[in-house]
Design a protein that fits this description.
Elements lengths: L3 E3 L10 E6 L10 E16 L7 H11 L2 E11 L5 H19 L6 E8 L6 H14 L5 H7 L8 E9 L2 E10 L12 E6 L5 H13 L16 E6 L13 H23 L8 E9 L2 H13 L1 H9 L5 H9 L10 E4 L2 E5 L8 H7 L4 E7 L5 E8 L3 H6 L2
Parallel strand pairs: 4-5, 8-9, 10-13
Antiparallel strand pairs: 1-6, 2-3, 3-4, 3-9, 6-7, 7-8, 10-14, 11-12, 11-13
């Protein structure tokens, strides 16, 4: 029995958070500017892209969470504010400053994010006019609008929320994210904003977020392409008034981590299964690893292997592409200890080809849900990775 309950409410499921979204003119018609605000100071943490060509907003966000407290998040979609030089950094800081003034907080208490086209300066006149209007629109019922406002090529908004207990007190975590293309850790072309009303110390929050991201967003690949703007940010404002969680309080900390892991993994799956042009949701389960990192890297090697993914689209039961992907990863695996199943069909059994019905396997690949199971036969560690098939539509969307 899980120690949390899935609830409605998205990013505003937790207490004392409000949001707003609008079209400020970056996109022709769709929502393109979002403001999320905590009514009280919140401890904050974030994980950011490792791309060497980082977008300007990621530096501003890194500075904000380094201070330990954040109250507002301002996001635009349709323009990544990446490869925009010193002007781009100044524009990102200006976005944060305007949002701070509009919500009545300090400039270093604002997370700034952008997503969209690279190499185009932000239309700051539109953003400067829009943020104050957003602040006047803030409300507790705008979670879906916020989720839609951060979308780019996503086919639908992505959200998740849970409720759990800490010391007899009911606490909540709610989140939204976006992502469908340029998806490969660390992390993915994604933005994720998580709001919780739990009271927790900043070091414990940073540790929890890092651990959960390693087991969720860093286990996703749509196309093997790392983005420039990846951000996962979490705020915890203490509105639940639970006993403050520290890293030493393992019972309360573990309850929080379990709830946070569910939220991040649910959103990670939503991203992978919304891959641009995809027709199949692919789950890769790796067991028998020497440690978690090995198990995850094997799964990621398979998820990034384009011939495996095109095989799924073509529904050709060519399981050898899974073996090739594992080997191409140059990881410490031994084919003599490995077993491979595709759609429940055992194809490779610890050093030898298994007897199987290829036609039955091809029929199983017609399903929209694909399961790959790999047992490395080296230990007890396991990991799950999510991806999708690779289709001609992906190319059409990315020319």
């Amino acid at each position: 029995m899980s120690s949390f309950k899935v609830i409605e409410g998205g990013v505003l499921a937790a207490r004392d958070y409000v949001a707003a979204a609008m079209n400020c003119g970056i996109k022709p018609e769709a929502l393109d500017l979002v403001l999320i605000h905590s009514k009280r100071p919140a401890v904050a943490a974030a994980t950011l892209t490792q791309n060497r060509f980082r977008a300007a907003p990621t530096f501003v966000t890194g500075e904000a969470v380094a201070e330990g407290f954040v109250q507002s998040i301002v996001v635009n979609s349709g323009n990544a504010n990446c490869a925009t030089g010193e002007q781009g950094l100044a524009d990102a800081r200006r976005m944060g400053q305007i949002a701070a003034e509009a919500t009545g907080v300090a400039a270093d208490e604002v997370i700034v994010c952008s997503t969209g086209k690279i190499g185009v300066p932000l239309p700051m006149d539109k953003i400067e006019a829009g943020i104050p209007k957003l602040a006047q629109m803030l409300g507790p019922d705008n979670a879906d609008l916020a989720a839609r406002g951060i979308m780019t090529t996503d086919t639908h908004p992505k959200a998740c929320a849970v409720q759990f207990e800490v010391g007899g007190t009911t606490c909540r975590i709610g989140a939204i994210c976006k992502g469908a293309g340029m998806i490969c850790p660390n992390m993915a072309t994604m933005l994720c904003f998580i709001c919780s009303d739990v009271a927790i110390e900043a070091p414990a929050l940073r540790e929890a977020l890092s651990w959960c991201v390693a087991r969720s967003f860093n286990c996703v690949s749509v196309d093997g392409d790392m983005s420039t703007n990846d951000t996962v940010a979490i705020l915890a404002n203490g509105a639940a008034e639970n006993p403050v969680i520290s890293g030493e309080d393992r019972g309360a900390y573990d309850a929080f981590v379990a709830a946070l892991l569910h939220v991040t993994q649910d959103l990670a799956r939503q991203i992978a299964f919304d891959g641009e042009g995809s027709t199949k949701d692919v789950t890769i389960q790796v067991t028998g690893g020497k440690d978690y990192v090995q198990a995850r890297e094997v799964g990621r090697a398979i998820a990034r292997y384009n011939e495996f993914r095109t095989m799924l689209y073509g529904q050709s039961f060519n399981w050898g592409r899974i073996a090739a992907a594992m080997g191409a990863g140059l990881l410490d695996i031994d084919p003599r200890t490995v077993s491979i199943k595709l759609q429940g069909v055992l194809t490779w059994d610890r050093g030898r080809i298994a007897t199987y019905d290829k036609d039955a396997g091809a029929e199983a690949l017609k399903s929209g849900e694909i399961l790959v199971e790999v047992d490395l036969g080296q230990g007890e560690a396991e990991a799950t990775v999510w991806t999708c098939d690779l289709t001609p539509t992906y190319i059409e969307l990315n020319v």
